[in-house]
Amino acid sequence: MQSDVDRYCHLAIEFQYAQKDLQGRIDTRIEALRPIRAVLSGFDFWQLQDHRRRCAPGGSAPRPLLAAYLRAKLTDAAIADTRRAPVPFVAGDSEVLCRLDRHAPCRLHLYHWTPPERPHPVSAGSWLGAALIGMAEGQVVSLRGLPGAPADRIEVLATTPAS
């Protein structure tokens, strides 16, 4: 049986060779954001894989730039147990207090496939969800210049696991 570490290492190598678009070019807009600092649970890692496949060309909801961003995030992310992480990070079922650009903070609820019965649900497979998932409290990410991105700057102020 293959260990989780071996499986993640193999996937990282696979992603390294899959970062080119269909014409063999590397998207410099995504490469400019790297390395993408993120901590993902094993569950979120595999769910984001599914989101990436759906966004890839030929997927059920093709958005190639978002697929490239998810691929880069998955490649750069550290995998950790949410209960043992030294710093709270945004998971696929988290409630997040964040600031988009310089607007007032807003409280969002992340999910993977079924929206929660709570206000302001955000899919992890959307630009906003893809940017937020894996971020630590106090972390800021810039998506400036990416078409379709919800904001130029996203800051996580606080995160709590879903109750």
UniProtKB/TrEMBL annotation:
It comes from the Bacteria. This is Uncharacterized protein.
